[in-house]
What we know:
disordered C terminus
Amino acid sequence: xxxxxxxxxxxxxxxxxxxxxxxxxxxxxxxxxxxxxxxxxxxxxxxxxxxxxxxxxxxxxxxxxxxxxxxxxxxxxxxxxxxxxxxxxxxxxxxxxxxxxxxxxxxxxxxxxxxxxxxxxxxxxxxxxxxxxxxxxxxxxxxxxxxxxxxxxxxxxxxxxxxxxxxxxxxxxxxxxxxxxxxxxxxxxxxxxxxxxxxxxxxxxxxxxxxxxxxxxxxxxxxxxxxxxxxx
Length: 232
């Protein structure tokens, strides 16, 4: 298997990881339900635990495949030079590596939230403390992700817009930066669209990001030289 095939395989596996994680996102919200948008984290007390468990496990297993997708992203950015192309890949790769732990913890959050709402009165104080600590853990993970993914995303956009890369400039619309910019509006979607769009919105953008990078680099060797006579 040559390097070009490995590069394509890495990109396709990242896309597969996104598809699997999208399925997991719907499980975390109880399935594909026509309703107004709901926040997954806040909705966990109301979802059957078995669905949250499998959504957490599947997402935790699938998200690491995204890391493979940063190889084609780097190859597509490489014409800008290593010192411009490498930092956004490292920042985004680090941030995305945290997504597995973030997503996989939903089963633990749900167990704690549901235990608090259903537990006996004599354990109320203990369960309240448990839930407070779960919130602290969740918020700490968000801080770590927030310190890397936005910076890496902005760097990616700047490199694509102002330097020579294999990406067309319009492809910045598939940047991970689109997720925090659009998420507040997606959260306001009414029924039935909220239930269809909101659960996997972020995952959809990230998957398109890796899909575009894979398509762009399909006929490009990892060294950056274009191949001829082949189509995706």
